[in-house]
Design goal:
Structural class: alpha/beta
CATH class: Alpha Beta
Helix content: 40-55%
Largest sheet: 4 strands, parallel
Shape: globular
Radius of gyration: 14 Å
Number of domains: 1
CATH architecture: 3-Layer(aba) Sandwich
Length: 120
Amino acid sequence: MGKRVLIDTDCLINYYKDKLELASEDSYYISEISLYEFVRGTKNVKESKELLEKSFQIVWLDDEILEKASEIWRSLKLTGVTLDDRDLIIGATAITKNLKLLTRNVKHYEKLKEYNLAFL
């Protein structure tokens, strides 16, 4: 059985530009945040959304993700650290759903390692 992987928006874009191959034995997910970030930059939003929904499992925001993101945000704020909300929610999604994050923007997520974010 392969890995369960959450694909960050940058890798999703590279995948559709044929600049990234995904192992067929793994299961791939995207956050609704990445879904939004991807389709907003396309000419045909409906068609792009349908393509993503057929190609990947979409992880929609739920209470568990929102609670984890809020908990991390509060913890980071106490130390004076900030993180973009989109990255925070994508990271919290990977953490709560036990998914490894595939991103080329590791620097954006470094602060979440201490909250058990794992990278592929």
